[in-house]
Specification:
Elements: E1 4-5, E2 10-11, E3 13-21, H1 30-43, E4 49-56, E5 60-67, H2 73-91, E6 105-114, H3 119-128
Antiparallel strand pairs: 1-2, 3-5, 3-6, 4-5
Helix pairs in contact: 1-2
Length: 134
């Protein structure tokens, strides 16, 4: 397993993010997805975030990314959603026909942690600490 490091810690913080278009409108194609990814890659280093994988469907995107322990993920997501919404609507004006008002992204999102070991394995490991091998 490859771990990330900074001055004071060793870590591996991986997340699976799902962002959905407002009203689940089917507006994402390959060109828009690529532009959304470019914006993500531009903003993410400022928050200690590194993209791993990116894919899309017509009404949502999936992102696998890594973060640092001091990454402010909610602030990053707000900045990303705001900037990408503004830029996409400016660069692809026809997209406004499929959306109501000024919204591009849904207010909600799904953010899941990912890791190497299932939670039950970690739980058993923690429970076994302090016990001598028999």
């Amino acid at each position: 397993m490859i771990l990330d490091t900074n001055n004071h810690s060793v870590f591996k913080l991986s997340y699976h993010l799902i962002l959905v278009i407002k009203y689940r409108r089917k507006v994402i194609d390959g060109t828009i997805s690529n532009r959304l990814k470019e914006i993500f890659e531009y903003i993410s280093p400022k928050y200690g975030i590194t993209i791993g994988e990116w894919n899309h469907d017509k009404d949502h995107v999936h992102v696998l990314f890594r973060a640092c322990p001091n990454s402010e993920i909610s602030k990053f997501l707000n900045a990303y959603k705001s900037a990408s919404s503004r830029l996409i609507k400016k660069e692809f004006p026809t997209i406004k026909q499929d959306l109501w008002k000024e919204y591009f992204w849904s207010k909600s999102y799904c953010l899941l942690t990912t890791g190497g070991a299932p939670i039950d394995v970690v739980r058993q490991y923690i429970e076994s600490q302090g016990q001598k091998a028999r």
